[in-house]
Write a structure and sequence with these properties.
The complex is a heterodimer of chains A (352) and B (196). Chain A has 352 residues and is mainly α. In chain A, 66% of the residues lie in helices and 2% in strands. Chain A has a two-stranded antiparallel sheet with strand order 1-2. Chain A starts with a helix and ends with a helix. Chain B is built from 7 helices and no strands. Classes of the chains: A mainly alpha (352), B mainly alpha (196).
């Protein structure tokens, strides 16, 4: 009825809203949702959208068979074109995605936004982080250079430790589809589908519980969520611009075609702390530290379950978090500065 | 009061414990080098490829490369390798001439014989007789072992043994993308900091 009485643009909007219910998006959110720390989750979503778009373009140029994978990446690099540009955007969007996801988690931890009733959403967030790391890891392997190959060797060695549990990673799992092809399918279908469904749960829980308050401050002015989306679009513009510029000025390199039996590269930055630990406790250490890290993250709401949310009232938790962060940074720096060490050798041949 | 002090002391111990674990992890990782690689591959071609890859990725690993080249010289399976070039590479390494060693290794593997070991298709399953990883028009996972690699194949393999990095070239396409990126950044910042 409203659509028939209104005129011009307003009438069109009313007609659209009547059919799609867009006005429901204008539910109230606190004004601080528009600040950068509280927008990090949204910014990471923008990175994910850029990853999806650039990834779809890359599927037109990438060859997921081991004999051709490295060469198919090399083929797009000499001349600037859609493929090289998409690869640059994909690479930098992946970096932005992981950085913003980690910063988002730090913000949630620092402002105690994981506390009741948001413990469930924290767990969903930890699962999202695991999927994000999986996407980053499989992306590293896909370029099929020495770095990617060695990353996969480590993964196989860990799979070997897990026995039948990770049989999917065994090269003998399928004679028809090489492991690289299976990882490619995981990277472009399985993990994106998983992240989509888990994100839906994440958003639903945010909508249900509302955006968490700033600790120690009373609830302030409320804005419509559509205003938050508009503000997010401004951050998105800056992020997209920076990624486009980096994709042009610093396109990612590719390493040499892989050679088996050597271990000469260092992992990308998210895995550098693990590399230092591996130097210390070898391959099993990688497995146990990775599991322990995610278990510890999942247990955060249980370990810090007092109702206090202000940083001043949570000094022990904040200090422990800061120390762990410093240790991670220290390990990463150490791994970055020290000479690489051969860990795997030909252990994988035993499993083949 | 006493209870508060005890709680503070417990917290301090917990922090100290965490710090100790951190220091142990950092300190331990610097001092211990667990190079526990298993035996080297038996064939000279794999050994030379490993040495070339080590030098291409990290010239500081010339010790590991030297070990493999010495093993290649005494290998019972020298197919596909010009051993004189391997000796030349070893001499270059002894003179700390890494580029010279890499050139010699590229020449040592330039024309592998038919049936010689190929590049890996996945970890742990390196076929003993297969094809070089040169580009081909169709996705054939594995080529007949009797197929002799051509000179272009060998050249392609040599190129693929090098990292490939590209930089901004100033082409119209790059310039357009750059301007688009800058426009996004400017519009984003202007709207973010606009009053009202």
């Amino acid at each position: 009825m409203a659509a028939t009485t209104a005129t011009g643009g307003q009438g069109v909007w009313e007609a659209i809203d009547e059919r799609f219910g867009l006005r429901d998006l204008a539910y109230p959110v606190p004004r601080h949702a528009n600040t950068l720390p509280y927008s990090l989750g949204g910014i990471s979503l923008v990175s994910l959208l850029l990853l999806v778009v650039s990834g779809v373009v890359l599927t037109q140029f990438y060859h997921p068979m081991p004999e051709f994978a490295n060469d198919s990446v090399r083929a797009i690099m000499p001349q600037f074109g859609l493929a090289r540009f998409a690869r640059g955007v994909h690479y930098w969007a992946a970096e932005a995605f992981l950085v913003t996801v980690l910063l988002h988690m730090f913000r949630i931890f620092a402002t105690a936004s994981f506390k009741r009733p948001r413990e469930g959403n924290w767990l969903v967030g930890v699962l999202l982080l695991a999927i994000a790391v999986g996407l980053y890891f499989t992306g590293t392997v896909l370029k099929w250079d020495q770095e990617g190959f060695e990353a996969l060797e480590h993964n196989l060695a860990i799979g070997h430790l897990l026995g039948g549990l990770w049989h999917w990673f065994a090269p003998a799992f399928s004679q028809a589809a090489p492991l690289l092809l299976r990882l490619y399918i995981a990277h472009i279908v399985v993990l994106p589908a998983a992240i989509f469904f888990v994100l839906v749960a994440h958003f639903w829980l945010i909508k249900r519980h509302g955006i968490s308050p700033i600790p120690g401050r009373p609830a302030g002015e409320m804005l419509p969520f559509t205003s938050h989306l508009a503000h997010l679009a401004k951050y998105a513009a800056v992020l997209t611009g920076v990624i486009l510029i980096l994709a042009v000025l610093r396109p990612p390199a590719i390493g040499p075609a892989p050679v088996e039996g050597i271990e000469v590269t260092k992992p990308p930055w998210p895995f550098l702390p693990l590399f230092a630990i591996e130097n210390w406790v070898s391959i099993p250490g990688l497995l146990w530290v990775s599991i322990a890290s995610f278990v510890a993250l999942a247990l955060v709401p249980l370990l810090d379950r007092m109702p206090a949310t202000g940083p001043g009232q949570r000094r022990a938790a904040i200090a422990l978090g800061a120390i762990l962060l410093l240790v991670l940074v220290g390990l990463a720096l150490l791994a970055w500065l020290t000479q690489g060490v051969e860990h795997i050798g030909r252990i994988l041949s035993i499993w083949a | 009061m006493g209870r508060t002090r005890a709680a503070q002391r417990r917290r301090s111990w917990a922090l100290l414990g965490a710090l100790a674990v951190g220091i142990a992890l950092v300190g331990g990782s610097s001092g211990v080098a667990l190079a526990h690689k298993d035996k080297l591959p038996p064939d000279a071609l794999s050994l030379v490829r490993q040495a070339a890859a080590l030098l291409a990725q990290d010239p500081k690993m010339s010790g590991e490369a030297k070990e493999r080249l010495e093993a290649a010289l005494t290998s019972r399976d020298p197919r596909g390798i010009v051993l004189a070039k391997v000796t030349q590479a070893l001499n270059a390494l002894a003179a700390r001439d890494i580029p010279g060693a890499r050139r010699a290794l590229a020449e040592a593997t330039a024309m592998p014989e038919a049936g010689s070991p190929a590049a890996p298709t996945q970890p742990g399953t390196s076929p003993q007789t297969a094809s070089p990883p040169a580009p081909r028009p169709s996705p054939v996972p594995g080529v007949a072992p009797e197929q002799r690699p051509s000179v272009p194949d060998a050249m392609a393999r040599m190129k693929m043994a090098e990292p490939l990095a590209v930089w901004y070239g100033g082409t119209p396409g790059e310039l357009t993308a750059l301007v688009a990126g800058l426009a996004f950044v400017v519009v984003g910042f202007v709207t973010l900091f606009r009053r009202g």
